[in-house]
Design goal:
The structure holds two protein chains of two kinds. By secondary structure, chain A is α/β, with parallel strands linked by helices. Chain A contains nine helices and ten strands. By secondary structure, chain B is an alpha+beta fold. In chain B, the strands form four sheets. In chain B, strands 4, 5, 6, 7, 8, 9, 10 and 11 form an eight-stranded mixed sheet that branches. Chain B has a six-stranded mixed β-barrel with strand order 16-17-21-18-20-19, surrounded by five helices. The chains are: A alpha/beta, B alpha+beta.
């Protein structure tokens, strides 16, 4: 652990004054407008907001998939905006995990190969015991030799979660992980993410528009028009719904 | 229908960058066809341009023999005497009569090089015709020749050689290299030159001397008085000549008939060129269909989801096919139009090597008529139409749900349909193999062997196609090998690379099959050219005992006086002059081997030489003794031909050449080693002079020590095309009697290879493009750019291994087959030592170049675009 990491305290990801503007001149769109937030280690945070509120842009900037126009993001003690493409790629495969709405598994690889892919890219030894445990918990033990096309949507997303967690990243970014799933599969996925936070002390940042999904988180950040307009700790479905209504129709 | 048109238009407009490679490949393939066509058109136009004729004002021509023009088959030794010319001139209805003779001659231009003859014509020395009623020559500069050392040239010679009145230059004649002074320039029948070639005119006596005619003429020209009945006059002419000719038949016809005969000869030549070029162009078209089928397949696969959507919302499979075929038409038209431009370039490339063989297109510029514009466009359309057939069918038959389903964008490409598709191609290849053996057995003459060889090559092309279809089956085992290496060398991406290669073999297969085609074509051609050239040289040098060979680089050959001079150079221990004449054998012709098809004996190159001298300088084996005592009336024949046409020792052969017929007795047959050096048959110098008095000396064989070469060079300095070489260099050189010009082959092969390489590049880059999303995901989860590039590189490595391996293997198979079929040891897998490394290195370079850029692009795929599917 490096010195600067300890100075960051308990935050897995910190964003300071993030702004992201798309386009220029009259056509410019300010997707993020000076957002600052800190995501503590070992906590599950949901980011919510109406369509166009900037929640996806926020996640992409946090994960180094998109570059903010101004402001900074610190992950694992490193300022993302200062990193080159290769360093950023290295940081992503070593310190972050990803779960996408569209699963994004590689069709030519089997489930097992998809899961171990990042370890191979990082030239890291695979923690077999952890892998076995992870796969068993996700109910994928007898699915490892299958290719994505032979798996159901829920199973594919569970493979994606295993892929994200195998390297024990500092933070897992989940972008609408239940968006493409039926409610039963969605619930399974959320339960598993929750379990990872409780038993493995994982840190998760999840963008969702589903109040039921948000209710699995420890904290909820509400975004509107590119700014954080509200926060909520220990959320329930009803409370999340109420806040969302308030944001959508300000008095 | 309007929606189909709209989709087609938009697709082409939006996806044109991806179509560039495909269009370029199509353009090159059609460019080969267009280029051949353009060359033939320019050649024909060059002949039409020169429509002047020395016969323009001639009413009647009389020539002993039975044909209007001289040729190896005319075989008439009869001449027209000066007395007969006088007799004819006195006939009623005759305004003027003059004797005519044409002697092959080359005039040296101001640049020191022989002036090249135009389009299929030769270059001739003819008598100046003084009678204005008969002369088609009109002076445009200078005056008429008044002495033997003075010449008048036609305007094309003047222009081509930079010559004019007052210039002194060298005229190469069969008997000597004469110093002559140009005194005038003429037009011929109103044209710059005769349709028959270049004309040099001089004093009639000098022409007769050069032609060895004594006081006689080869033919008689007559100008009729106005109103004279041609038919009556022709009869009178026959009567006047009847007692003169040694044989009774005299051909009498009008000047127009002679001109037509000249034109026919040239038209036959044009047909022959068209056929030869057409065969080569067909290989180009084959490569084109091959390449385009590959790239169309990839393009259609990339759009599988769009097409599935269209099928889902109710478009019929037929409409989908129509849609794709419409796009193919776009590409075909674009390729055809570009091909027209490429064709002009190809024609220029062809003009170079072909001009050397006498097929000069002269000053004829680009021919842009409909005859040029339509065929390449049609060919472009046909090629793309054929190439798009399979991809369009496949696309229209896929189930929409399958294509729309998540993560099913990829398939192995292995299917029963593919296997079934390869079967008929393999069967056809097998059939051609069988046919080639059959052709060889039925007809062992050189002609039969040639068609057998052609069938073997066709079988090879079909085998290549079948292998390409079966590619997805071949890729996994080989891919695993490369993959194992990848895992060992790059543990980080190796596994993934192996998975990409082994589980998605179609992608690798389509690029590899094009590379295979390229490698196979280059290996076969290179190997054949090398084995034939070097094999011939091996044979020839095995038999030859001479130290040096004096010959000419193209052109007619050495004048006799120059050859004699060479023989007297100090240090020359022994020498033999070889005079070659093209002859036809009219008897005995073996009975037809294939029913209903008479045996055709191709023209024979007969060498006239002093038998004793020749036997001392060329190892003739058992034939050495009879040849050294060779007498007039005897002939020694190459054993290979004697066997093929059944001419054993003792056979009496009838041999015809331009000026005579001889019945000769076969006294010996000699080895094929000796045949390379001395030609198809040997007769005495006197015999060859008797049947072709105007033949040049083609080669002088010389035995002598090292410094002799310089003396020889000095002795032949008057002949610009003369060269002095050791035997091997002579045999592999331009004058060495090789039957084909490899340059031409290289032009076609070069363009075909570039076509295929466009295909490789397009397929590789498309295969990367179609995985934008996958690479993007890799980037998103943390693959470094270098790692993504490494993935692409390993895939490229598999393409190289597969393409070169299969290509070389197939090439060796095809050569082995051609060898078995033709039974010739000249056809062998024989490549220069550096050839394989060059081919492999070439394949590596192309593949790396073709995958570096797409690899870079892949590594920089914006991850957001990739992970978020619209």
């Amino acid at each position: 652990m490096r010195a600067d990491e300890t100075t960051m305290g308990e935050a897995a990801v910190t964003a300071r004054d993030l702004t992201r503007v798309y386009g220029s001149g009259d056509g410019a769109v300010r997707a993020l407008d000076g957002v600052s937030a800190s995501f503590p280690l070992g906590r599950f945070t949901a980011v919510m907001g109406p369509s166009g509120s900037g929640k996806s842009t926020f996640l992409h900037c946090l994960a180094g998939l998109d570059r903010p126009t101004s402001g900074e993001v610190v992950v694992a003690g490193q300022e993302l905006t200062r990193l080159g493409r290769t360093a950023l790629a290295r940081l992503r495969r070593e310190r972050m995990g990803f779960v996408f709405q569209a699963f994004n598994l590689l069709p030519v690889l089997t489930a097992e190969e998809n899961i171990t892919m990042i370890a191979h890219l990082a030239r890291r030894r695979i923690d077999r015991a952890w892998m076995t445990q992870l796969v068993a918990r996700l109910g994928l033990t007898d699915r490892l030799a299958h290719r994505p096309a032979q798996l159901s949507g829920g199973q594919q997303q569970r493979v994606a979660i295993a892929r994200a967690l195998l390297t024990r990243p500092d933070v897992v970014f989940a972008d609408e992980p239940t968006g493409n799933l039926d409610s039963r599969s969605g619930t399974e996925v959320l339960r598993f993410l929750r379990e990872a936070v409780e038993t493995e002390n994982a840190s998760i940042v999840m963008v969702t528009h589903d109040p039921k999904a948000a209710a699995y988180a420890d904290d909820v950040l509400f975004l509107a028009d590119g700014r954080i307009v509200d926060t909520l700790a220990e959320p329930t479905v009803d409370e999340v719904l109420a806040r969302l209504r308030r944001i959508s129709s300000p008095e | 229908m309007r929606i189909l048109w709209l989709i087609t238009r938009r697709t082409v407009a939006e996806r044109w960058p991806r179509l560039v490679g495909t269009v370029a490949a199509g353009a090159l393939a059609t460019g080969l066809l267009a280029g051949s066509l353009q060359f033939v058109l320019q050649f024909t136009a060059a002949m039409d341009d020169v429509d002047g004729s020395e016969y323009a004002t001639v009413s009647l021509v009389a020539r002993p023999g039975d044909a209007p023009v001289r040729g190896p088959e005319s075989g008439s030794g009869a001449r027209v005497s000066a007395a007969a010319v006088d007799r004819v001139a006195a006939l009623p209805g005759v305004a003027a009569a003059a004797g005519d003779a044409a002697v092959p001659a080359e005039i040296v231009g101001a640049d020191g090089r022989a002036v090249p003859a135009p389009a299929g014509g030769g270059s001739y020395l003819r008598p100046w015709v003084a009678a204005p009623q008969l002369s088609a020559y009109a002076l445009v500069a200078g005056r008429a020749p008044a002495a033997a050392g003075e010449v008048v040239i036609d305007r094309q010679t003047a222009r081509g050689g930079g010559l004019g009145p007052g210039d002194v230059t060298t005229l190469l004649l069969p008997d000597e290299a004469a110093r002559v002074t140009v005194v005038g320039v003429v037009t011929v029948g109103g044209g710059d030159a005769s349709a028959g070639g270049l004309t040099v005119l001089t004093d009639p006596g000098r022409v007769r001397q050069a032609a060895g005619l004594g006081d006689d003429w080869q033919a008689l020209w007559v100008a009729a008085t106005p109103g004279a009945d041609r038919a009556v006059l022709a009869g009178a002419l026959r009567g006047a000549l009847a007692g003169d000719a040694s044989r009774s038949d005299v051909w009498v016809g009008t000047g127009t008939q002679v001109r037509d005969a000249q034109r026919r000869t040239i038209a036959e030549l044009a047909t022959q060129i068209t056929t030869n070029l057409g065969m080569l162009a067909l290989v180009g078209a084959f490569v084109g269909v091959f390449v385009l089928a590959g790239t169309f397949g990839t393009l259609v696969r990339q759009r599988a989801r769009d097409l599935a959507l269209l099928l889902t919302v109710g478009m019929t499979p037929r409409q989908v096919r129509l849609l794709l075929r419409a796009e193919a038409v776009f590409v075909g038209l674009a390729a055809g139009l570009l091909g027209l431009v490429v064709g002009l370039g190809v024609a220029r490339l062809l003009a170079g090597p072909l001009a050397g063989t006498g097929l000069d297109t002269g000053g004829a510029g680009p021919q842009l008529g409909l005859a040029y514009l339509l065929p390449p466009l049609a060919a472009g359309l046909l090629i793309t139409w054929l190439a798009s057939a399979r991809p369009a069918w496949r696309a229209s038959l896929t189930s929409p749900v399958e294509s729309l389903a998540e993560a099913s964008a990829d398939s192995s490409g292995r299917s029963r349909r593919r296997l079934l598709g390869a079967l008929p191609v393999l069967a056809l290849a097998g059939m051609f193999v069988g046919l080639s053996f059959l052709a060889r057995r039925e007809d062992p003459t050189p002609e039969g062997v040639t068609s057998a060889g052609a069938a073997a090559i066709l079988a090879g092309l079909l085998l290549l196609s079948a292998l390409a279809v079966l590619g997805p089956y071949v890729v996994p085992p080989l891919g695993r090998l490369v993959g194992t290496l990848a895992v060992a060398l790059r543990p980080d991406v190796g596994r993934m690379a192996r998975a990409f290669i082994v589980r998605s073999p179609r992608r690798v297969a389509s690029a590899a099959s094009l590379l295979m085609l390229t490698v196979a074509l280059s290996t076969v051609t290179w190997s054949l050219v090398t084995s034939i050239t070097e094999g011939r040289a091996d044979r020839g040098t095995a038999a030859v005992r001479a130290d040096l060979v004096v010959s000419t680089d193209g052109g007619s050959g050495l004048p006799a006086s120059v050859a004699e001079q060479a023989a007297t150079v100090p240090g020359v221990r022994a020498s033999a002059e070889l005079v070659r004449a093209r002859t036809t054998v009219t008897d005995p012709i073996p009975p037809p081997r294939v029913r209903g098809r008479p045996t055709v004996v191709p023209p024979l190159t007969v060498t006239g030489a002093d038998g004793a001298a020749l036997a001392g300088l060329v190892d003739l084996g058992a034939a050495g003794r009879p040849v050294s005592r060779l007498a007039d009336g005897q002939i020694a024949v190459a054993a290979e031909l004697a066997e093929a046409y059944d001419w054993p020792v003792g056979t009496r052969m009838t041999v015809r050449a331009a000026e005579g017929v001889r019945v000769l007795e076969v006294v010996a047959t000699y080895s094929r080693e000796a045949q390379v050096m001395v030609g198809d048959a040997i007769v005495t110098s006197a015999t060859v002079r008797a049947i072709d008095p105007v033949a040049f000396v083609s080669v002088v064989l010389v035995a002598g020590a090292g410094p002799v070469a310089d003396g020889l060079r000095a002795a032949v300095a008057d002949v610009p095309t003369a060269r002095v070489d050791p035997p091997r260099a002579y045999l592999t050189g331009a004058g060495g009697g090789l039957m084909f010009d490899p340059t031409l082959l290289y032009v076609f092969l070069g363009v075909a290879i570039v076509t295929a390489l466009f295909g490789v590049a397009t397929t590789l880059s498309l295969s990367v493009a179609e995985r934008t999303r996958e690479f993007g995901v890799l980037g998103a989860v943390g693959a470094a750019e270098r790692q993504v590039q490494a993935l692409v590189r390993w895939e490229a490595a598999t393409v190289v291994v597969l393409g070169t391996g299969l290509g070389v293997a197939t090439a060796l198979g095809v050569i082995r087959l051609a060898q078995a079929v033709t039974g010739s040891d000249l056809i062998a897998a024989r490549l220069p030592g550096y050839a394989l490394p060059v081919i492999v290195l070439g394949a590596v370079t192309v593949t790396v170049l073709a995958s570096v850029l797409p690899g870079r692009r892949a590594a920089r795929v914006p991850v957001l675009l990739a992970v978020h599917r619209e």
